[in-house]
């Protein structure tokens, strides 16, 4: 039996090829957009949503996250403050990774997915790292994501930091999940931690796996200077020179960060049609530098927005991306409203190979739709001001309705199918136990075997 939903008389930010913005209505049948109509009208449906005075966008796409990063929120860590990014890994992230178990993976996936949903993100790309919870752990992450109801690309972050064999165990988990994933909302991909924690053999094996199943491969690249220095010292090459020579770069490759790069490396990224996931807030948090995003865009590189497991509110990441490059270049003309909105929708969908079905509001695409009702509207809200409102004014709390795959999951700012209070209580109990275990985790002060 067909189910229909209509979204009537909203300001539709389509992100289609023409980047049209207009007042109009959308008709959804089952999980697809079947009609987009300009002008004042009322499309009749089983469920009709009045979007008057609201901005309607495609579901936002986060191209790089670590769902389990949500477990660090407010964590009372007793440690010597890290002085650089490498110490951040050694003193925080790697002990955290080694403490993770399957239950931790599940509760972090559920709560992070709900937070993404609350601010209008309907699709994400996640990499999970937990060397003591490898086999089968992606099933637990899938369980959490599907309970929330959104879409995900999930993967295990393969690394040889502790042993060569462990890296290949991570790839096996990626392949197992890629082969078994059946729900249309869930996709597997291949994840490699970073070039400074893996040998060439694992990089090549990861790319072969990506090619075999035609799925994305993602890797952290040149986030901090350690990555660059490691490759120069061990291989006599900059990070992207090494990846290029190994055949890792390409249309299915999504590199996260790309901060410490030079013009020659940007040309390699551009020539191979590799996509970049930019994580402005995380880069600020870790004090690693500012990626040359304006240069990337001018060279035709597909750049998208991720959160790197730090702040999950879509609009905070959009706004940070919009602003940081202006101050870095001392030029307020750098970065436009349209560019950062493209990075969080259609560009991110392209990076994950799903732009044919997500990332814009068009007939025939999957019905992931967000309705944003600004709580305060001191100026006219119309097709001419919608971009400015989205980038400069609204935040996740202004998201009123989220539709994923044709199903209304958030309405009036409230979760429709989830009892958030029960989940919060469950999460607080489970994470308190995780924090106790994390306190006993040993610090890691070196990269082993590399």
Report a brief summary of the structure.
By secondary structure, this protein is α/β, with parallel strands linked by helices. It is 38% helix and 22% strand.
Question: What portion of residues belong to β-strands?
Answer: 15-25%
Please, what is the average pLDDT?
95
Q: Uncertain runs with pLDDT below 50, 5 residues or more?
A: 444-449
Q: So what's the CATH class of the domain at 60-351?
A: Alpha Beta
Helix content percent band = 25-40%
Number of helices: 15
For the secondary structure, the number of strands is: 18
Largest sheet: 9 strands, mixed
Might you state the CATH topology name of the domain at 60-351?
Answer: TIM Barrel
Radius of gyration: 21 Å
- Would you tell me the structural class of the helices and strands? alpha/beta
Principal-axes geometry comes out as globular
Layout of helices and strands:
Blueprint: E1 4-13, E2 21-29, E3 32-38, E4 47-50, E5 55-58, E6 60-65, H1 85-99, H2 102-118, E7 121-128, H3 137-148, E8 151-158, H4 164-180, E9 186-188, E10 190-194, H5 200-213, E11 217-221, H6 225-235, H7 239-245, E12 253-257, H8 263-271, E13 275-278, H9 280-286, H10 293-298, E14 303-305, H11 314-329, H12 337-343, H13 346-351, E15 369-372, H14 386-392, E16 399-404, E17 407-411, E18 414-415, H15 420-439
Parallel strand pairs: 1-4, 1-5, 6-7, 7-8, 8-9, 8-10, 10-11, 11-12, 12-13, 13-14
Antiparallel strand pairs: 1-2, 2-3, 5-15, 15-16, 16-17, 17-18
Helix pairs in contact: 2-3, 2-15, 4-5, 7-8, 11-12, 12-14
Architecture overview:
With 450 residues, this protein is an alpha/beta fold. Helix 2 runs parallel beside helix 3 and helix 4 packs parallel to helix 5. It is built from 15 helices and 18 strands. The protein is globular. A hairpin with a 2-residue loop joins strand 2 and strand 3. Strands 1, 2, 3, 4, 5, 15, 16, 17 and 18 form a nine-stranded mixed beta sheet that branches. The longest helix is centred in the last third of the chain and has 20 residues. The C terminus is likely disordered. It has a domain of 292 residues: TIM Barrel (Alpha-Beta Barrel).
């Amino acid at each position: 039996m067909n189910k229909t939903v209509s979204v009537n008389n909203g300001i539709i930010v389509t992100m289609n090829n023409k980047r049209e913005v207009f007042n109009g209505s959308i008709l959804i049948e089952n999980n697809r957009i079947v009609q987009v109509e300009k002008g004042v009208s009322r499309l009749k449906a089983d469920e009709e949503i009045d979007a008057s005075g609201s901005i309607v966008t495609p579901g936002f796409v986060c191209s790089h996250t670590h769902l389990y990063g949500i477990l660090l929120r407010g964590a009372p860590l007793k440690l010597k403050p890290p002085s650089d990014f490498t110490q951040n890994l050694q003193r925080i992230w790697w002990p955290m990774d080694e403490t993770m178990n399957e239950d931790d993976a599940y509760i972090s996936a559920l709560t992070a997915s709900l937070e993404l949903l609350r601010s209008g993100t309907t699709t994400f790309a996640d990499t999970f790292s937990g060397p003591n919870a490898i086999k089968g752990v992606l099933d637990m992450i899938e369980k959490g994501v599907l309970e929330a109801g959104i879409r995900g690309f999930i993967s295990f972050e393969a690394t040889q930091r502790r042993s060569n064999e462990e890296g290949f165990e991570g790839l096996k988990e990626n392949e197992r999940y890629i082969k078994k994933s059946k729900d249309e909302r869930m996709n597997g991909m291949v994840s490699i931690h970073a070039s400074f924690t893996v040998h060439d053999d694992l990089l090549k094996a990861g790319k072969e796996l990506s090619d075999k199943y035609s799925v994305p491969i993602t890797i952290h690249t040149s986030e901090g200077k350690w990555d660059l220095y490691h490759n120069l010292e061990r291989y006599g090459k900059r990070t992207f020179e090494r990846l290029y020579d190994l055949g890792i770069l390409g249309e299915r490759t999504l590199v996260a960060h790309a901060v410490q790069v030079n013009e020659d490396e940007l040309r390699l990224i551009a020539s191979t049609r590799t996509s970049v996931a930019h994580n402005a807030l995380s880069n600020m948090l870790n004090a690693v530098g500012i990626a040359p995003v304006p240069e990337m865009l001018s060279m035709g590189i597909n750049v998208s927005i991720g959160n790197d497991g730090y702040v999950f509110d879509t609009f905070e990441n959009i706004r940070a991306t919009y602003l940081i490059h202006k101050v870095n270049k001392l030029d307020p003309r750098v970065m436009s409203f349209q560019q950062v909105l493209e990075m969080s929708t259609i560009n991110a969908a392209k990076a994950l190979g799903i732009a044919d079905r997500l990332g814009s509001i068009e007939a025939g695409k999957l019905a992931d739709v967000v309705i944003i009702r600004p709580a305060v509207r001191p100026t006219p809200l119309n097709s001419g001001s919608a971009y400015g409102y989205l980038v400069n004014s609204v935040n996740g709390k202004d998201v009123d309705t989220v539709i994923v795959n044709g199903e209304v999951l958030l309405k009036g700012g409230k979760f429709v199918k989830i009892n958030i209070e029960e989940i919060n209580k469950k999460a607080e109990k489970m994470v308190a136990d995780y924090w106790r275990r994390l306190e006993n985790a040993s610090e890691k002060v070196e990269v082993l075997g590399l």
